Amino acid sequence: MILYFLTLVLFVMGVYCLIAKKNIVKKIIGLVIIDYAINLFIILIGYRRDGVAPILFKDMPMEEFARHSVDPLPQALVLTSIVIGLGVLALQVAICLRLYEKYKTFNMSEINRLKG
Amino acid sequence: MESFLLILLIFMIVGSIIAIETKNLLSSVISCGVVGFSVSIAFLMLGAPDIAITQVVVEILILVVLIRATITIDNTSIEEHWDTFAVVSSLIFFGLFLVFAFLAVKDLPPFGEPSMRVSQQYLETALQKTGAANVVTSIILDFRGYDTLGEATVLFTSIVGAFVILRRRGRKQRSAADTEKVGILTEEEIKEEYEEFRE
Q: Where are the domains of chain A?
């Protein structure tokens, strides 16, 4: 339970970075940290004590494998989520580089002031 | 096992604090990488080797992309302006969220005993139904194939978006391009295109 709670602390760190920091790259780092925290949380929920990885070997009885393996469903979903996170990050960094080209700054409040 | 994960999580939180609070952007990005690789080790401990491998690869790519973003500016150190409203409001959110999270985490299944109503079925029948020894792969590519199709769509859209945003120049006359440039180019246009290409 304390592990779940610490993961949520990591999530809140990311949200704090997203809200309170002015620099765009810092904001992107906050989003990446949120990504890590949620992925780790989902995998933690699917863990079975003393579990084996959900991969069948040749000389492994089926019933024993089904009783001892960790939950494979969260792993499949997280595998999807990690790759999507990378794509979204690439889009964010592209927008961020364009903003720097136009305004010559990463500072969010300065960009706000220069508008219009 | 649990104590090791505990230490790893505290290490991650310290790394994220450094990543958030340090004044130099480059060291901030590298501290973010520390958090990512610790997440990968945690995945390896939690019986998810596939995801650990993916996380390492994606982490390296994230570092490359983020360093590309920070290396464009000459001076990577930043000066912070203290914004009281943002800090206070986020701290209030911090507190409220953690209180509710503490209440909610109590109702989750305890660590080490997942409720596997659907996954038990997958574990028992994956080999007969799909013939894949790796159950995670059989879920991704067979049981929940439409989910992966959606993932591919999202990935494609985001990469196309990044390319469109980063493109050097757009088309100059869109209306002319829509109506006239249907077939053969004139000689001048070919010359123009060549010039553009050489640039």
A: 2-114
